[in-house]
Design a protein that fits this description.
196 residues; mainly beta; four-stranded antiparallel beta sheet; three-stranded antiparallel beta sheet; globular
């Protein structure tokens, strides 16, 4: 697409592959757009904002703010082993999966959850078309995911790799003192077009 790849360096932690979750934290451009990973190494991640061609033929996008969290490796965390001071029963995990073009693929969690947790995903840039990962049917044991593209001359025709973060909803504190709030919000407006 038109924006290139913006690299963001990591703090100095052990070498090796990273699992990174990122999300747009602003909506500055008059088109919608979504975040995609365009490169990943042990010291940096490359991110770009993609957008559809619903109203025009280009996919370039203005500057946006991004929030991200970096893990040194995939893991499963159950705070019953190292209880934090807030919400001592929360669980989380991160992982990576590869999706075929269609249909929805079932992804099983690595541990059981008492209630359906929050799931965050970040797709890679293997498919150069404007592709995003959609999820549905989040349960206590897993979720379903599929790569999708806006209407156009072709459809998703190659596999998509994505990282995911699974975490119970609520206010949590990690053993190092860092806190995280996980919740949900109802979104009902169509997310495309000028001024959206």
């Amino acid at each position: 697409w038109d924006n290139g790849c913006d690299n963001i360096g990591f703090a100095s932690i052990n070498s090796g592959a990273r699992t990174v979750m990122a999300t747009k934290a602003s909506r500055n451009d008059n088109n919608g757009g979504w975040l995609r990973r365009c490169s990943l190494s042990s010291s940096a991640i490359g991110l770009t904002v993609d957008e559809d061609q619903f109203f025009d033929g280009e996919r370039s996008h203005g500057d946006e703010d991004v929030d991200l969290i970096v893990f040194s490796q995939p893991f499963v965390f159950d705070s019953n082993f190292v209880p934090p001071t807030i919400d001592p029963s929360f669980k989380m995990e991160v992982g990576r999966a590869e999706l075929p073009p269609a249909p929805f693929t079932a992804i099983a969690f690595q541990q059981a959850y008492a209630e359906p947790p929050a799931v965050f995903v970040l797709g890679d840039s293997t498919n150069t078309d404007p592709t995003a990962v959609r999820i549905r049917n989040v349960s206590t044991s897993g979720f379903e995911a599929v790569p999708v593209e806006p209407p156009g001359p072709d459809s998703v025709d190659i596999n998509t790799t994505f990282d995911y973060l699974v975490i119970e909803k609520g206010l949590h504190q990690f053993p190092g003192g860092e806190r995280i709030v996980v919740g949900e919000a109802l979104v009902s407006q169509i997310q495309h077009g000028n001024g959206v």
